[in-house]
Backbone:
């Protein structure tokens, strides 16, 4: 599996899209840093970009990479390699190369700006960690969708819809439910609901870390009380891990039965 | 004569389409077996079942007397040339060769001969995305013949080849056969069948319709060449 991972990674890291992705983060974060100079504010701006963009790019790259390397996958399937290792290797190669674009694109400007001497270091690390988690989660989901759908257009459609649902529609429905049930004590439900969506969960994690949860009113206080504790942090990390492991487990299962 | 691949009672369908309907077939060692059949008769599915890429519903496949279900290490004994040559776009030919060698981990003593024979030398440092279809097929051939596997499975090996490369490919196949390798080839080029085949397997609607030598095929259907014999089978069965 390590060999497949290595080759997928090097194949991807040399594609021009990896560079475009890398330079995008490099330009955005360095211009934000030099324009505002306030690391905390820059992290919030970047959070808004990352929470939308990382899942979208990971989804699109995931399906694109799977479909584009299909014939090559067939070549690998004819080699004496275990099936599971082929798909896991490709998936991890993809997720790692996307994550490194993110890591270096954001890391270099922050490093030059002196993040290690700043008090914001942990906030920055949380930003990177959630970004990496989202990359792994959404590339696994898109890989799974592509595995299950031979039809490229359908695969793309499903992945884009899933992204839109989790990044945009889910929040709308969530807000709507808060308004409809405003007479009831729904903190626990809203807490649960936001934990179920990896994008929402990441957003809350970052906002709470940045200590601006006061802006979120009473619900924010409930969230703070929950996420501020070790249990809360542990639980949210567990859920992010679960969101990563479940699609990967499904990839293993589906790929084992698939005909090529 | 020992059987290198044994297939018994093999069934496979994709949704409602029954592709393989009870294939019983043995391939003999050190022979060139050509699998023929109209489009969508199940040739590629058969080959892919042997490779474990397609998972059959029932039946058994043995490669070198070992059941292959849920196995993968047996593929060390098989070199496969797929029908469509498409590789990771950003790798160069040399990197791809190194990669497959790395994955298979077997000596490639003939690599440079093959590169010379098929004129691939100038292309080794070029990225695969910039190669023409014919050159890609040559890379495909290089990858299949580089390894010392006892079984060679070639799915439409002549696709896009120029006449020089075609002649070299035929020479190569004959030489490898003399070295004791067993071939399983699918093709639509009847001339290739006449020149190479020790044995023809004709598949029709997922079943073995005919198995025998070129001479016996001609004799059975009373035709002077394979093309006409095959056409006769197809017309008789209302396939076309």
Residues:
């Amino acid at each position: 599996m390590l060999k497949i991972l290595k080759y997928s990674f090097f194949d991807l890291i040399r594609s021009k899209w990896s560079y475009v992705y890398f330079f995008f983060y490099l330009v955005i974060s360095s211009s934000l840093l030099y324009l505002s100079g306030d690391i905390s504010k820059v992290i919030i701006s970047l959070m808004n970009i990352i929470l939308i963009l990382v899942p979208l790019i990971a989804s699109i790259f995931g399906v694109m990479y799977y479909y584009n390397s299909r014939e090559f996958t067939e070549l690998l399937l004819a080699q004496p390699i275990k099936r599971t290792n082929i798909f896991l290797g490709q998936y991890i190669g993809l997720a790692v190369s996307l994550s490194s674009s993110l890591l270096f694109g954001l890391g270099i400007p922050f490093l030059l700006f002196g993040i290690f001497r700043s008090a914001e270091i942990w906030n920055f690390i949380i930003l990177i960690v959630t970004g990496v988690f989202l990359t792994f989660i959404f590339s696994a989901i898109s890989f799974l969708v592509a595995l299950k759908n031979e039809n490229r257009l359908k695969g793309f459609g499903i992945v884009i819809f899933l992204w839109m649902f989790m990044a945009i529609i889910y929040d709308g429905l969530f807000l709507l439910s808060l308004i409809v049930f405003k007479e009831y004590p729904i903190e626990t439900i809203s807490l649960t609901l936001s934990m179920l969506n990896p994008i929402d969960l990441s957003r809350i994690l970052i906002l709470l870390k940045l200590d601006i949860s006061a802006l979120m009113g009473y619900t924010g206080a409930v969230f703070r009380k929950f996420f501020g504790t070790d249990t809360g942090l542990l639980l949210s990390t567990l859920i992010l891990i679960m969101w990563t492991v479940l699609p990967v487990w499904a990839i293993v299962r589906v790929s084992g039965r698939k005909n090529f | 004569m020992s059987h290198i691949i044994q297939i018994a009672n093999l069934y496979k369908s994709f949704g409602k389409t029954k592709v393989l309907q009870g294939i019983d077939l043995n391939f003999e060692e050190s022979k060139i077996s050509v699998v023929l059949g109209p489009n969508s008769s199940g040739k590629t599915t058969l080959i892919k079942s042997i490779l474990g890429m397609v998972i059959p519903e029932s039946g058994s496949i043995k490669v070198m007397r070992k059941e292959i279900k849920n196995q993968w290490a047996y593929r060390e004994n098989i070199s496969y040339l797929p029908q469509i040559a498409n590789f990771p776009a950003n790798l160069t030919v040399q990197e791809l060769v190194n990669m497959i060698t790395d994955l298979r981990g077997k000596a490639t003593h003939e690599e440079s001969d093959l590169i010379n024979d098929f004129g691939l030398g100038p292309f080794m440092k070029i990225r695969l995305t910039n190669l023409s279809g014919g050159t890609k097929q040559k890379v495909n051939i290089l990858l299949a013949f580089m390894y010392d596997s006892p079984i060679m499975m070639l799915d439409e090996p002549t696709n896009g080849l120029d006449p020089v490369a075609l002649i070299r490919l035929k020479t190569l196949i004959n030489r490898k056969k003399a070295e004791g390798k067993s071939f399983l080839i699918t093709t639509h080029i009847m001339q290739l069948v006449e020149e190479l085949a020790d044995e023809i397997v004709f598949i029709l609607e997922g079943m073995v319709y005919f198995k025998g030598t070129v001479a016996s095929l001609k004799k059975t259907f009373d035709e002077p060449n394979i093309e006409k014999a095959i056409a006769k089978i197809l017309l008789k069965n209302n396939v076309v």
Summary: The mean pLDDT of chain A is 87.
